[in-house]
TrEMBL record:
<dbReference type="GO" id="GO:0042626">
    <property type="term" value="F:ATPase-coupled transmembrane transporter activity"/>
</dbReference>
<keyword id="KW-1003">Cell membrane</keyword>
<dbReference type="InterPro" id="IPR050095">
    <property type="entry name" value="ECF_ABC_transporter_ATP-bd"/>
</dbReference>
<keyword id="KW-0547">Nucleotide-binding</keyword>
<dbReference type="GO" id="GO:0005524">
    <property type="term" value="F:ATP binding"/>
</dbReference>
<keyword id="KW-0472">Membrane</keyword>
<keyword id="KW-0067">ATP-binding</keyword>
<dbReference type="InterPro" id="IPR003593">
    <property type="entry name" value="AAA+_ATPase"/>
</dbReference>
<dbReference type="InterPro" id="IPR027417">
    <property type="entry name" value="P-loop_NTPase"/>
</dbReference>
<keyword id="KW-0813">Transport</keyword>
<dbReference type="GO" id="GO:0016887">
    <property type="term" value="F:ATP hydrolysis activity"/>
</dbReference>
<comment type="similarity">
    <text>Belongs to the ABC transporter superfamily.</text>
</comment>
<dbReference type="InterPro" id="IPR015856">
    <property type="entry name" value="ABC_transpr_CbiO/EcfA_su"/>
</dbReference>
<dbReference type="GO" id="GO:0043190">
    <property type="term" value="C:ATP-binding cassette (ABC) transporter complex"/>
</dbReference>
<keyword id="KW-1278">Translocase</keyword>
<dbReference type="Pfam" id="PF00005">
    <property type="entry name" value="ABC_tran"/>
</dbReference>
<protein>
    <submittedName>
        <fullName>ABC transporter-like protein</fullName>
    </submittedName>
</protein>
Length: 266
């Protein structure tokens, strides 16, 4: 399992209206979520992890190697990202070429790249759209295409910025299954999301950001069990907990299934 370490990391945008400061943070869980209110700094951390932004001070290491020391192709094989807005990373004339372009950054074998592109397009359900222009796809399909471009490269660490936004339910289900497959294969999946039901039900670890700082890292059960913290950082508990708390049950439930299991054993 890849291990990401952030040490003494500081970053400010030029106007200095926002300051990120992360003293010591380790991401070593197979499925980690980063949550927090709008503007907390979640996407900024991802941009630092991918080298799109450069920290003012501090280090980022993956498996003990500083990210800055990796050659570009090695870096792509180490960390891959899908952005919140797919239009920020799609620019080729066809869906298939979009995936092949990603692959061309790490391999010059066109036949193998073409085969691999077909495989990942099938995986995200876009085989039929392979020859279409990405801008003729729906937003949901464009998001899945960005996922395919990263799956093609198959980095050790996958970063997803709001992957579920604008996806329909079957696509959400498919993506969740893909995340579990990746994590079972030894990859690390780190996802920014505002969907607390999803975090509670599917993730092994969660980091909470507020005003450029990481205020909590731990298991979802620990986070959602701390009602004061959840309220303080402006999160909503999973819907099942909102309901059970309203009915006077103070326990922590991560999903309807979790509730059912606990009540069967009573
Ligand atoms: N390019 C930029 N220049 C100046 N300020 C920026 C820039 N990008 C982001 N910011 C500011 O930095 C802060 C953190 O932004 P960031 O996008 O990291 O937050 P976030 O937690 O991902 O928010 P959201 O949940 O809305 O995506 C915000 O106040 C934002 O307005």
């Amino acid at each position: 399992m890849p291990k990401i370490e952030l040490h003494h990391l500081q970053f400010s945008y030029p106007e200095k209206s926002f300051n990120l400061a992360v003293e010591n943070q380790v991401f070593a869980d197979s499925m980690a979520a980063i949550v927090g209110q709008n503007g907390a700094g979640k996407s900024t951390i991802f941009k630092l992890l991918t080298g799109l932004l450069k920290a003012t001070t501090g280090t980022i290491k993956v498996n003990g190697t500083e990210l800055g020391e990796l050659k570009p192709a090695d870096r792509l094989k180490t960390i891959g990202i899908t952005f919140q807005n797919p239009d920020d990373q799609l620019f080729n004339a066809t869906v298939k070429r979009e995936v092949e372009w990603s692959l061309s950054q790490i391999s010059s074998d066109k036949a193998i790249n073409s085969q691999r592109a077909d495989q990942v397009l099938e995986k995200v359900g876009l085989t039929e759209k392979a020859e279409e222009n990405p801008y003729d796809l729906s937003l949901s399909e464009r998001k899945l295409l960005t996922v395919a471009t990263v799956l093609a490269v198959d980095p050790a660490v996958y970063l997803f910025d709001e992957p579920m936004m604008s996806l329909d339910w079957p696509s959400k289900q498919m993506l969740t299954d893909i995340f579990h497959e990746l994590s079972a294969d030894g990859h690390q999946v780190i996802t920014i999301t505002h969907d607390m039901d999803w975090v509670a039900a599917e993730f092994s670890s969660v980091a909470v950001m507020e005003h450029g700082r990481i205020k909590f890292t731990g298991a979802p059960r620990e986070l959602f069990g701390d009602r004061d913290l959840v309220q303080r950082v402006g999160l909503l508990p999973p819907k099942i907990m909102a309901l059970t708390q309203m009915l006077g049950d103070p326990k922590t439930y991560l999903s309807p299934e979790d509730y059912q299991v606990k009540h069967q054993n009573m």
